[in-house]
Amino acid sequence: MKNNERPAYIETVEAYFAALDDRRVDDVLSYFNENAVFTVQSAFVTCEGRDREIKAMFEQFLETYSTVVHTDFEHIVDPVAQAISSRFRVELDDRQGGHETKQSVNHWYFQDGKFQRVYVWISGDNVLGD
């Protein structure tokens, strides 16, 4: 493993979450390949295509929650498989004043430096669409 690969995967994932927390949907989508697949494994939901279903999922998510904050990251990087798994905490405030704290594990497979396949496991009810 090259020393510079591990930090690059971590920086990419954390920058992706920073864009999501800042509600910059176009920046969030820039981390995905056009034909990416995003699966919320814990809810058996799959979204296909960056500019179609994945975009709609993120737009719905940000419409539902006024504040989203991802913290407490722990990462495991596999540069040979071009993959990273991350465990983290998510704080969510909905538009009706409700607050939720979730624990999540995501696993990303990269292709050409962008997300190709994403798998999400999240505690409790699915917050990423139907």
Describe the structure.
Helices cover 29% and strands 47% of the residues. It is an alpha+beta fold. The radius of gyration is 14 Å and the shape is globular.
Strands, helices and their partners?
Layout lengths: L4 H17 L3 H5 L2 E9 L4 E4 H16 E14 L4 E12 L4 E13 L2 E9 L8
Parallel strand pairs: 1-6
Antiparallel strand pairs: 1-2, 3-4, 4-5, 5-6
CATH fold-type name: Nuclear Transport Factor 2, Chain: A
| CATH C-level category | Alpha Beta
Strand order of the largest sheet: 2-1-6-5-4-3
Based on the coordinates given, report the CATH architecture. Roll
The helix/strand series, from N terminus to C terminus, equals HHEEHEEEE
Low-pLDDT residue intervals, each spanning 5 or more residues: none
Distance between the termini: 38 Å
Number of β-strand runs: 6
What profile does the largest beta sheet have? Answer: 6 strands, mixed
Rough shape? globular
Oligomer: single chain
Number of helices: 3
Mean pLDDT across the residues is 92
Task: Give a brief rundown of this model.
This protein is an alpha+beta fold and 130 residues long. It has a single domain (5-122), classed as Nuclear Transport Factor 2, Chain: A. Helix content is 29%, strand content 47%.
